[in-house]
């Protein structure tokens, strides 16, 4: 005997008064944290600032995930912790300790960090602690740029979730410049664009001199050069807040061109970029090649059944589900909780072309019993989908790689083929044991 997992029809999503339009899970119930939420925690995101360190101020338990990830991903020497006790929380003494901890870090770390982030946790946000004022005082005292950021999952369902505010804090390091070059910044993704993407070739042929991404900057000075770019292209919704801020503070206009897997969506994205940049982009041959790749792989794979999860690198579960159906595959299930503004177009398309899709939320408490349903599909895309459908061939489609454009279609289909030729162990993937 077990509880039936909470689910809804795709046709119920996005309509007025459907629970919280931004979430599938009804409000007012507990949230289930499934054990595969991924490795891009706030400290890891902050670690992409070159030649910088982070001090996380929190209760001991809050820093555990960040500490383990820092060991796994190789940035443990740049992440420091200041644990607060219950008495600290009551009397606020931990705020005074930040000054001594910062001085100690800057004195002991060799080479001396050229920048620093001070990260607050939920408790200080609830207390109203002013970390921005603390960062400004530390910046004056130590003569290096120091910015405040927040690791506050309590804000996840608000208008300023931590995954967005951390990016604004990161790009706040960039100084304002008067001279611009004919370059583009890629904003929103943590890794740079996949090296095989046609994007760079198309932009270079159109006259763009350089494409910049923070993860490709090895020094702080190189990172500062992003302020010289004339354009920002936002490829993930989590980068929109930072792009708005950069437009206001650095005078860099932006275009929202999210990563996608549907040929029609990618076609529209490049047309949008043409209008934004004011230049012709030669994409026809890449689009035609992508169509041929889809036909070739479908002839080999046939009408597979696929479940699509939420922890995927393009951030739009519904767009990916649409693309897979356009390829000829079947998508009977979706695992997701968020409903982003960009999802509504694709949800409406799915209502018309695949009205039988069942949507499970990965965050509802009833999902603790989900595995007992023993639902079967051929392929599970995303770590959450793979966890809930353990008999399917898993395709992590992790946030450590950023596929983009028509080449992303080919890469996705190759991953599906590899899943059959060399299936991966979901438990090893979840716990980082695949190597």
UniProtKB/TrEMBL annotation:
<dbReference type="InterPro" id="IPR000510">
    <property type="entry name" value="Nase/OxRdtase_comp1"/>
</dbReference>
<dbReference type="Pfam" id="PF00148">
    <property type="entry name" value="Oxidored_nitro"/>
</dbReference>
<protein>
    <submittedName>
        <fullName>Nitrogenase molybdenum-iron protein alpha and beta chains-like protein</fullName>
    </submittedName>
</protein>
<dbReference type="GO" id="GO:0016491">
    <property type="term" value="F:oxidoreductase activity"/>
</dbReference>
<dbReference type="InterPro" id="IPR049939">
    <property type="entry name" value="NifE-like"/>
</dbReference>
<feature type="domain" description="Nitrogenase/oxidoreductase component 1">
    <location>
        <begin position="49"/>
        <end position="419"/>
    </location>
</feature>
